[in-house]
Amino acid sequence: MEKKLFFLSADIEGVTDVTHWDETSKGKEDYREAREQMTAEVAAACQAILDSGHEVIVRDGHSSARNIIHAKLPRGVKLMRGWDCHPGSMVAGVENGFDALLFVGYHSPGGVGYNPLSHTMSSSTLAYVKIDGRIASEFTINRLFAAQYGVPAIFLSGDKGMCMLAEEEVPGIFTVAVKEGMGDSTFNMHPLDACDAIYEQVRKAVKAEHEKPVLKDEYELEIRCIHHQDAKDALKIPGVKLLDDYTVYYKAKTPTQMNFVRSYITK
To answer: pTM of the predicted model, to two decimals?
Structure first.
């Protein structure tokens, strides 16, 4: 059996039981338990990959990128912490020879009500992001960046709405819905059951055959800003237009170009 190298990008708002912004923020009393569960769910996915005879590198993709407790991951797993000036952001480094990409703890995007913590990249600056007229999640943005390097997205865990959107975007992707949003509340899988389900589905995902992703020649990016000044400021980028006082429009040749425009607005 050929040993493969997998990339795992982790977030926290899609982890079971995480329901309020306080649970996602360092320094808040509730953050510790959310951090522990984020680590546990990532560890379950990593263990499934290792038990299948492969290797994995984890990218901590939430906030400070210093959330996952490395000592609680299986031995042999490398962890990327902190941020670099890299256009891949939450999947920085995925261009370095990986066979496939997995997502743990991912959440529904801004513009939908599937999770009390629904947002896309920045809850304070972006109301929603659309790509080719369709609401785009952080999963969308990150999988498209990886697709430039022939890396397919094969697994996602998170809230039920995010799993549904991922399955629509990538037919055949393996998912685990660890919770379901209901207004400002969540209906959650037991933490241990969530880890067990992630382990089982990741085992299936790494064994399955996956098609290489196909990119388009051009993408239409639409970003609805919360503050009109952010939209106006984006006009400094050549090719950017405004659809109205709050909405940025841009035609991009590559996902990297889209990431540049979005990261400029959320800087």
So the answer is: 0.97
